[in-house]
Amino acid sequence: MKRHLQLSIKQLSGFYADGSISPRTVVDHSLDDAIKLKRLNAFIRLSPEKALHQAKESDHRYENKEQLGVLDGVPIAIKDNFCTKELTTTCASRMLSNFVPPFNATVCERLANAGAVLIGKTNMDQFAMGSGTVDSIFGPSKNIWSNDLVDKWHIAGGSSGGSATAVAAGICYAAIGSDTGGSTRNPAAYCGVVGLKPTYGLISRHGLIPLVNSMDVPGIFARNVGDCLDVLNAIAGPDDRDSTTIRKPFRKIDMSFNEELDLRNVRIGIPKEYHCEGLSNEVLETWMKVADLLEDSGAHVHQVSLPNTSASIFVYSILNQCEVASNMARYDGIEYGHRAEIESSTEELYANTRAEGFNTVVKTRILTGNYFLLRKNYHKYFEKALRVRRLISEDFKRVFETPKNDENIVDVLLTPTTLTDAPLYNDFVSQSNRDQCAVQDFCTQPANMAGIPAISIPIRLSKRGLPIGLQLMSKSLNEEMLLRVAGWIEQQVEFDCLANEQIYAARS
């Protein structure tokens, strides 16, 4: 294992500054590792020319003591549903297999401005519709914690499984994913890394190819909470090109994770509805142990209720498919993307293009969404789902915000991220995409409907030697408190994803 892989981003920057190691050397190692670990299928494509050019520029800035970005020379990967100028962006689909964007997504632009080095685009479920990264036209991503990467391997989670795998395998220091119903937190939990879903609108969606506009959020993967914060500070803030971003200027979070957090001033809620059917004993035990750890250290821990949680998976499914039906209508074979060869009429062109360009999962969601949006069904499904979504959001507001003097009010909610550790691939694909998403996203998608920030942090290994993660949620724009509590837990449990023996075996 290369020494620099064990460093945090701040430590790496320090070594760059004193000349102990150069960005070019680290980037060379990252690209080399990505090739050695190609069996994981974390990347759809690498970008060596771009990466080496950016590394050379970073070398120059360090050597000449020029102004440096917070991520200067740091290798980062980006999920393949973010537009990257002059670099193919496919959404892991045939529909966009040859799409080369003429512009950068705001997230990519801000990473570049912060000095980050893009080493490649990561694998995902097609158009981000899934929770396993098993529906990509480039094949599934594999979980680095699997004992057998040939026959009996575990899923990486989804839909941002490639990004989580790249970070967990030590190929890069951080990665960008997207999170619509848990697509950052789910793979983070399965792969043993940190996964942050910020407040809706805190990070620009400009250039993120949409799945569900009202829930999509760019997400961040890193090996520790401090690195996650560094990336957040680099990419958050209003964007004139995205009307859904929060207009208030983003105040960078400046805090030290070595500074002791006084838990006597922190109130932790344990939502009873998250103790649900299908929750494994190991995840439940982990959840309770961390709750006890917080309470024993002075935090006020008590049970709370989010009564509409049980309805959230149905609401999410309806709203997801309705917005998918709308968003996928742009892929018609005329403006960009795949175009069918048979086009005797406009209608036939549309039909054949979409039949060839989309997989079964995407087509099913389009058809179902259009059914829900029919005039005869609109009030019965779509409008009713919107009303229940409001109730789910109000559940969170009640426990976080009102009334101010209520003893039941909390600062942070502690829940499982997933119900189990990472399933075996063969077990996962034996069920339908819809059924798997209903199970895998149970704990994560309510935060998307409410627009609140949430983070998954790795806690320990299961009996099968697979990571188990827990989720923290807080009120909108309360990322600082969320990250402080997450950082405290991280220090107590001391989980090290790079201690994974499978990384060494896969590199050999």
Q: Can you describe this structure?
A:
The protein is of the alpha/beta class. It has a domain at 3-47 and 68-263 and 414-507: Amidase signature (AS) enzymes (Alpha-Beta Complex). It has 17 helices and 11 strands. It has helices at residues 9-17, 23-36, 48-63, 106-113, 161-168, 185-191, 225-235, 281-296, 309-327, 346-357, 360-372, 375-400, 425-428, 433-440, 445-450, 479-493, 501-507; strands at 43-46, 75-79, 117-122, 174-179, 194-197, 217-222, 267-271, 300-304, 412-416, 454-461, 467-473. It has an 11-stranded mixed β-sheet with strand order 1-3-2-4-6-5-10-11-9-7-8, sandwiched between helices. Helix 2 (23-36) packs antiparallel against helix 3 (48-63). The longest helix is centred in the last third of the chain and has 26 residues, at 375-400. The protein starts with 8 loop residues before the first helix and ends with a helix.
Number of helices: 17
- Helix percentage range: 25-40%
Distance between the termini: 11 Å
Largest sheet: 11 strands, mixed
CATH topology of the domain at 3-47 and 68-263 and 414-507: Amidase signature (AS) enzymes
CATH architecture label name of the domain at 3-47 and 68-263 and 414-507: Alpha-Beta Complex
The level-1 CATH class of the domain at 3-47 and 68-263 and 414-507: Alpha Beta
- The CATH homologous superfamily of the domain at 3-47 and 68-263 and 414-507 is termed Amidase signature (AS) domain
